[in-house]
Amino acid sequence: MLRAWIAAMLLVAAPGAAGAQVFLASRPNPEFMVGPLFVRLAVTPELGVTLDVLWSLVVPPNKSGAAIAQDLYLLWPNSVGASTEGAPDPALAAYVTARGFTPIREGRLPLFAQSLYRIGEEMPPEPVKGGAPFVTFVRLGGPLGLTAPVTYVRIPWTPLLANRTWLMDLRMEVTDLVKRRTATWIEDLFWGPHYALALTFNDVRPRALFPLYFEHRDRVVRLADDPSQLVINFRDADHLKIYDVFPRTANRRLSETLDSTEEISMFLDRSEGISPQVLTVQFGYFKGLRTWAPVIIPIIFFFVGNLTMPVFMMIFRRTKREIVNRVHIGPGDAARETGVVLSREALARIVPGTTTYEDILKMGGGEPEEHEQLATPDRRTVFYRGSRIVPQRRRRFGWLATVSGWSVEQHEVEITLDRNVVADVQARVRRSPLPPTGP
């Protein structure tokens, strides 16, 4: 019961990274190396994840396979699934229990041998009888509390391990590798959920994994010069969108052997030693209407823009008109004037019999309208016309005032001159309300 509860809790808290971490030999200072090594991850649109670790051993020329025969061990930084038939190995659980860990799952993983040279008919991988026993465990106590689950796998010796024409294939189902990324509702609506996964090598940093590595660091099997890769295959590439790949040097291409499969790979650098090497991908699958999103979204924005622009402009013009009609900015006596409007002070300075034509021009400026009569050439009439738009204010806040309406004042001044001297002055003002459409 305790194991089931711990396993359920860890399925929620497990980190989103996996990888072939460290191979250990049964005896210290192994004389052989691992090479080539391929950590291959297959991802389906349903987010099913199958992971294969394929490798062979490089044996020194002066050694035979029988001389180095021994079981191998693999330290894995996650929990694993896809057990094959067969009873678990109680020695593995006893081994981790003796070191203060708590086993939460035991079983056997499928183990295959794959020929590199297929002659004649297709040769399927040969299953290794009994598979590879494993134990998944955690540490419950300690100052940092419960650890993430890790796995200890024993790979039984077979002569095919030392045969350079064969690759061993350890297969497992990984359920906690793909993690959903936080995205906006617009991204989820048009593009679907975003996911991230990380495939690593040489990562012995998990708290439950490092003690085993540190205890057996003299048994670590190093990488050979043979090409080794981290590989992620995404099925159904027609409905796949890759958002980001790290590192930038990773290779991205369509698979040469699998239909509709996008392949992202990274070569492992053996000069990095025990330093972790990570391949990270952010991706998403889209189906149904999301398949047409690159076409539909621009069309929607085109039609929405053309339909809403007239409405928006109508609202904008109406709002502008209301602001102009209802708000006035300026000093208390400010008004909008056109033409020439002579103030009362200016009119008071025009004195019949004294003010001359030149004085009128100085006060009014511009070129006034003039009327002359042929019968009386010494008399003429000068007209000044202008209009003022005056706000009818309600409340004032400094230079800002609310307006209940606007009125128009039509000003006309008629000045009669006799021999260039003012003889008579007539001033007329007509007021009328301005329609609410605005000035």
Characterization of the model:
The protein is an alpha+beta fold and 439 residues long. The chain folds into three domains: 2-286, no CATH class; 292-327; 330-433, no CATH class. It contains seven helices and 24 strands. The chain has helices at residues 2-13, 90-97, 185-191, 210-215, 293-326, 344-348, 357-364; strands at 17-18, 22-25, 33-43, 49-58, 72-76, 102-109, 111-115, 126-127, 132-138, 150-155, 166-173, 179-181, 194-201, 228-235, 240-246, 251-254, 261-267, 277-285, 327-329, 336-339, 369-372, 379-397, 400-418, 421-433. It has an eight-stranded mixed sheet with strand order 8-7-11-4-3-14-17-16, with no helix packed on it. Strands 19, 20, 21, 22, 23 and 24 form a six-stranded antiparallel sheet that branches. Strands 1, 12, 13, 15 and 18 form a five-stranded mixed sheet that branches. A hairpin with a 5-residue loop joins strand 3 (33-43) and strand 4.
